[in-house]
Design brief:
The complex is a heterodimer. Chain A is mainly beta. In chain A, about 0% of the residues lie in helices and about 50% in strands. The radius of gyration of chain A is 13 Å and the shape is globular. Chain A starts with a strand and ends with a strand. By secondary structure, chain B is mainly β. The radius of gyration of chain B is 13 Å and the shape is globular. The chains are: A mainly beta, B mainly beta. The interface between A and B is medium-sized, with 25 and 23 residues.
Amino acid sequence: ETGVTQSPTHLIKTRGQQVTLRCSSQSGHNTVSWYQQALGQGPQFIFQYYREEENGRGNFPPRFSGLQFPNYSSELNVNALELDDSALYLCASSLVAGVGAYNSPLHFGNGTRLTVT
Amino acid sequence: LAKTTQPISMDSYEGQEVNITCSHNNIATNDYITWYQQFPSQGPRFIIQGYKTKVTNEVASLFIPADRKSSTLSLPRVSLSDTAVYYCLLLDSSYKLIFGSGTRLLVRP
């Protein structure tokens, strides 16, 4: 069983640039969610995708967007980077029964550390 | 938006039982409460999940009272390797996933 993998592990960007982070879900999982974790803080829910559609979103602006592909891999895109976007970005996959189902345990990758200078 | 409260840190010794409580309001009425463990430079790892009353697995127990306004993670006989940050995760009434602020557990020899 292949776990959740994220790439790259580390990234440095300049304010105003755009970034794409990638996630490969655990085999058999149909849902992916993304989280932002600032240093010393708990993860903050960005959004969740089920069957390639966004079906839940936290309090993040539209410049945070995502995609889920038919093979259940996923991307997180952040436009117009700001210094406060510096954080660990975590991806998690799960197997859920349907839209709006959140009960399944999340399987996390080890994250991408993004630094914005 | 749901608000969660966890102790910032806890100290324990090897072999002791540790109980970590997460208090929360505005929780979704029909969703589970889940607890995760996180080590430095790693993603959180699932520990246990429950809806109400008590759930037990091979590593922990979870107690949830009838009003579901809190949950308590119980780690029996902790070891040094249990030193980590522990988070509760729940779905609030507006269907946003909310992590608690985390409890940093230090287990001493």
